[in-house]
């Protein structure tokens, strides 16, 4: 329950950021919920991250888009990919920051690709590559660094004490 509350607070902070700073395509998207889901997938149980990815992806689809299923798919897949990669290359501060930032890039490109295939975006490739992605990557890399210590302590599963 405490992980759900933390992810919901990240969702609210992200929505507040988006409503305050969404004035142009060059506005970087702060993806705190996705970052939180990646931490849950890495330091918690992947089943929990998959369930929360479905819930928050559906919430994203209902609140922010007219189409159901885009964020449900990506919010479930990206955290699992990040934890899979980090299980093989090792987990430390730098590998987590670099992998999560790369997954933010994969997420941004996949969302744009899906929206372009459906015909629901007006953003050009040039706008995406020059204005949108660099700012989004920079802002999210800072968010990953800031959230690293609290999320690793908050999400880490603790061993169950044996009774008897």
From TrEMBL:
Q: Keyword Metal-binding: yes or no?
A: no
Keyword NAD tagged: no
Which superkingdom? Bacteria
According to the record, the segments passing through the membrane are 28-46, 58-81, 93-116, 128-149
Using the record, list the residue span of the signal peptide; answer none if the entry has no such feature. none
Cellular localisation: Cell membrane
Question: What InterPro entries does its record include?
Answer: Cell_shape_determining_MreD
Q: How does it sit in the membrane?
A: Multi-pass membrane protein
Keywords of this protein's UniProt record, alphabetized? Cell membrane, Cell shape, Membrane, Transmembrane, Transmembrane helix
Coarse class of the protein's main subcellular location = membrane
By sequence similarity, the record places it as follows:
Belongs to the MreD family.
- Name assigned to this protein: Rod shape-determining protein MreD
Can you name the source organism?
Answer: Exiguobacterium marinum
Question: What taxonomic classification does the UniProt entry list for its organism?
Answer: Bacteria, Bacillati, Bacillota, Bacilli, Bacillales
């Amino acid at each position: 329950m405490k992980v759900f509350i933390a992810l919901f607070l990240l969702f609210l902070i992200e929505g507040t950021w988006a409503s305050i700073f969404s004035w142009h395509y060059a506005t970087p998207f702060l993806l705190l919920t996705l970052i939180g889901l990646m931490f849950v997938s890495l330091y918690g149980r992947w089943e929990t991250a998959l369930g929360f990815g479905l819930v928050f992806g559906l919430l994203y689809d209902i609140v922010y888009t007219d189409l159901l299923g885009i964020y449900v798919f990506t919010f479930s897949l990206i955290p699992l990919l990040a934890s899979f990669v980090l299980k093989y290359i090792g987990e430390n501060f730098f590998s987590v920051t670099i992998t999560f930032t790369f997954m933010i890039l994969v997420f941004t490109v996949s969302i744009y690709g899906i929206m372009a295939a459906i015909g629901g975006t007006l953003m050009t490739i040039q706008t995406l590559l020059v204005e949108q992605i660099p700012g989004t990557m920079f802002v999210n890399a800072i968010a990953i660094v800031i959230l690293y210590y609290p999320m690793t302590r908050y999400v880490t599963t603790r061993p169950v004490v044996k009774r008897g």
